[in-house]
Amino acid sequence: MLLKTTVEGDMLVATIQIKEGSLQNADEFKLELISQISKGFQLVIFSFKEVEYVDSSFLGALVASLKHALSLKGDIILTDLEKNIYDLLCMIRMDKVFKIYRTTEEALAKLVMNAEKL
Amino acid sequence: MDTASSKKILLVDDNLFQLKLMEKAFLKEGYQCLKALSGNEALDILNKEQPNIIVSDFEMPGMSGFDFKEQLMSYPALKNIPFLFLTAHSDEEVMMQGLNLKAIDYIVKGTPMPVIISKVNNLLQTVKLQQQLSVEELRKAAQSLNIKSIPDHVPAVKGFNIQFWHKPFENYPGGDFIDFINVNERYTFILMGDIMGKKWKAWFFTFCFLSYIRATVRSCIYDNEFTTSGILQKINMLVSLDGVLQDILSSLSLVMIDMEENRVFYSGAGDLPLVLYNKNQSEIKQINSAGLLLGLMPDGLYDESCFEMKKGDQLLFFSDGIIDYGEQGENKSNYSLFLETITPLLGREDSFELIKENINFKQFPRVQLDDASIIFIHKN
Question: Which of B186, B188, B156 is nearest to B261 (CA)?
Fold first, then answer.
């Protein structure tokens, strides 16, 4: 319910459908995301284009999902981050653990290009 | 109870006139109103925003109020939002049907608006009081066990004046923790962290973390390990290896004061940058750290900064709840703006008092969405 998903090749693009990511929806969000990752998608592109604010509970859920993805040899990519959220992520060094792209289209183009090189 | 202005109500009615009538009345009472002409429209809104209470018409074409409430019951995050049915029925069977779905009450259509508003106010007041009573009971239990994540006082640290400010989210003990560890006459450790979550779940884990941190600091000193980065890495390893703490993440700012040399050592784990005010040059400097959140990766990439503090210099560190503010009804986080706002208050004997007094700045209309803490160190 919190995620609107589309499949692009072997990648999942998940758009978060909430304005504020907080304690109220962090657990539900984590369960939904982990369930999507567990379906076998190696890469989940996560679009924040609807999101205007996130608190530490929501960031915790996001990082816990990343840990789950990494344990399955997968990865999570973040896109369309509002400036305030991007700045916060960088400030607490989340940019070192998440791959971040400006837009979903940019992430898809980059990933397709990388796949073609292999 | 919070002021009505912080309360959000979702009004659901297929009759636009009735909907506008209710909106006008609730807006006048200071409520923020969300409106939906059908259950489906209301579900779309609830996907994005959560109100404090829902008032829904019972008889609507397509999805009835009953069906709407039934749908809400399947979502853990939505099922407990206080709910009132607005109905033309005074039929007991229909009412029982709704009450079985945990609709808290009914309002018969035609009830005067002031009565409806009183009913909503009373309901929110009752819910709030019930929550406060539960919190109070748990707080008493925690107090009797001497469990604390925020200290009662700051120990004396020779040559430094240390103070802190802490406000938990909705007055629940939450994820922020602060501690001071006087290890000997020369060194004092100061730590501030934030378990990524709120309320009781986060609060419970703060004790696990605090126990790890306190034990690790002592153990490192016993082994002659005095680098903050080395200590952080040890804490991180212990946390990462402990299955009980899987999925629990925490930020931590670890500062060691060397009272003999007037030097400060700092290492951070996913925390906000520290701020150092230099009295001589009347300027502030951000002190950044490279380390990752505790529990995120076995190697947390921790580094250490070292700086001298001279008379009049000030050092501040914050948890992330401090940088939340409201702008045109939207919530945002902005560290730079917060810093810009407090900078003119630095460099004075009463800097910390001024920051505390003005914590809800005009230029930075802070909103309390999370635990918020500040530690302030002034070099005498």
Answer: B186
**CB–CB of A15/A7 below 8 Å?**
no
Under 8 Å between Cβ of B373 and B318:
yes
List Cα–Cα distances, B318 to A42, B193, B259, B371, in angstroms: 37, 9, 22, 11
Q: Contact, B12 vs B45, CB < 8 A?
A: no
Give Cβ neighbours of residue B80 (< 8 Å, ≥ 6 apart).
B102
User: Which residues of chain B neighbour A92 with C-beta distances below 8 Å?
Assistant: 251, 270-272, 293, 320
Cβ-based interface (< 8 Å): residues of A facing B: 1-2, 17-20, 22-28, 50, 52-57, 59-60, 63-64, 67, 84-85, 87-88, 91-94, 96-97
Residues 6+ apart with CB under 8 A from B348: B354
Query: Could you give the 3-state DSSP secondary structure of residue B343?
Result: helix
Is B199 part of the contact surface with chain A (CB cutoff 8 Å)? yes
Please judge whether B197 and A24 are an interchain contact, meaning their C-beta atoms are less than 8 angstroms apart.
no
Q: Is B363 exposed, middle or buried (0-12, 13-18, 19+ CB in 10 A)?
A: exposed
Comparing CB atoms, the residue among A53, A93, A94 nearest residue B333 is: A53
The overall pTM is greater than 0.90: no
Residues 6+ apart with CB under 8 A from B215: none
Q: Which amino acid is at B109?
A: K
B315 vs B161: CA distance, rounded Å: 10
The question of ipTM being above 0.90 is answered as no
Q: How far apart are the first and last CA of chain A?
A: 36
- Chain A nearest-CA residue for B251: A92
Residue B198 with chain A: CB contacts under 8 Å: 23, 55-57
pLDDT digits (tens, 9 = 90+) for B248-282: 788 999 999 999 999 999 999 999 999 999 999 99
CB contact under 8 A, A93 and B194: no
Closest among A27, A34, A31, A30 to A12, alpha carbons compared: A34
Listed residue (B198, B232, B308) closest to B264, CA to CA: B308
Q: Residue B111: which residues within 8 A CB-CB, separation 6 or more?
A: none
Q: Please, which pLDDT band fits residue B330 given cuts at 50, 70 and 90?
A: confident
| Unique residue bearing structure tokens 């539960």 | B134
Reference B210, options B247, B245, B186; nearest CA is B245
| Tokens of residue B299, six digits | 């190697």
Q: How many CB atoms lie within 10 A of CB B176?
A: 29
By the 8 A CB rule, do B273 and B200 touch?
Answer: no
